[in-house]
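Good morning,

Attaching, inline, the backbone tokens for the sequence recovery test we're adding to the shared suite. The designed sequence is right after.
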């Protein structure tokens, strides 16, 4: 049985928390907070405030935009706030985002993420002990003469790593408590491309990360309307040059190239749906009728441990997003 997770949406933090509560009531296993328009830890705190039993994770927080010390203390606080329900999802982001938006080093990303995770784990495990906490590498810390005067709920908090490329995905297999995909990860791509990468990393250490697939889910009695709502999400990801192989493998190389060009020529990231035909939306999202979405979810059984569903948001008015969100939560209730 595959676990159904959910990524709530809300115009306000209060609405976000309410959506998490409704997803929990529907049977979701974990609710996840992304980081783009909000701070993932603050959004996760809102999700915690609205729920009582469901797991809560950052899906994902930017690993390099905060120091390992700040990230570790934030994770400890969120784990305490949630009563041990928190999981820390981290991702490297991309070079332009990390360098231009956050003004921090990105290269070398694989080694930097490896050391960041090691430093975070060291702080989480030892903050309450008062012993020196030292890690040296691309990311280094040396904490001496300090002790956190609060007992942790857990001395090891699960860390899930988001990864796309082969080296980063292998790293998730090697050291991650879990692996998180981005929103476009069809079942055949997971089976044929991603899982072999994860296994290569796992073979180094015997680690077995939880596999969490993310999927934009758009459900309506009118399958055409559902897929139309999902086009903006696909367009957003199709504007990223590094996803060329993903789209080419599914027969959409020309559409990907056109979308990259549209963004380069000044189109807003939320306005790239026009270059996404309905069949492209159907290939990369769980969109259509409830039966279509249920059948799409079933294709991940035996491949993934969980699937993180999220409503379409890009290029849609709030009322449309709310309708799409209600439909996904109803689907979780039927299937969980």
């Amino acid at each position: 049985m595959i676990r159904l997770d959910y990524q709530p949406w809300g115009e306000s933090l209060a609405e976000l928390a309410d959506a998490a509560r409704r997803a929990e009531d529907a049977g979701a296993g974990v609710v996840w907070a992304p980081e783009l328009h909000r701070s993932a830890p603050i959004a996760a705190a809102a999700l915690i405030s609205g729920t009582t039993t469901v797991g809560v994770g950052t899906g994902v927080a930017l690993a390099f935009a905060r120091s390992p010390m700040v990230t570790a203390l934030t994770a400890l606080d969120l784990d305490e706030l949630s009563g041990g329900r928190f999981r820390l999802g981290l991702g490297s982001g991309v070079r332009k985002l990390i360098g231009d938006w956050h003004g921090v080093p990105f290269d070398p990303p694989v080694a930097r993420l490896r050391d960041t995770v090691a430093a975070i784990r060291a702080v989480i495990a030892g903050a309450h002990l008062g012993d020196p906490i030292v890690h040296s590498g691309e990311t280094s810390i040396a904490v001496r003469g300090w002790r956190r005067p609060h007992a942790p709920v857990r001395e090891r908090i699960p860390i899930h790593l988001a990864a796309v490329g082969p080296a980063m995905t292998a790293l998730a297999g090697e050291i991650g408590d879990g692996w998180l995909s981005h929103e476009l990860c069809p079942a055949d791509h997971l089976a044929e491309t991603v899982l072999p990468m994860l296994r290569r990393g796992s073979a180094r250490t015997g680690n077995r990360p939880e596999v969490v697939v993310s999927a934009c889910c758009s459900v309506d009695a009118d399958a055409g309307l559902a897929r139309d709502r999902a086009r903006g999400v696909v367009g957003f990801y199709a504007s990223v040059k590094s996803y060329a192989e993903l789209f080419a493998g599914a027969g959409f190389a020309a559409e990907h190239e056109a979308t990259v060009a549209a963004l380069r020529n000044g189109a807003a990231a939320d306005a790239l749906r026009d270059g996404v035909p309905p069949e492209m939306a159907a290939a990369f999202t769980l969109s259509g009728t409830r039966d279509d979405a249920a059948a799409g979810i079933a294709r991940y059984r035996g491949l993934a441990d969980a699937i993180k569903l999220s409503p379409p948001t890009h290029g849609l008015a709030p009322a449309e997003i709310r309708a799409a969100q209600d439909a996904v939560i109803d689907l979780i209730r039927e299937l969980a």
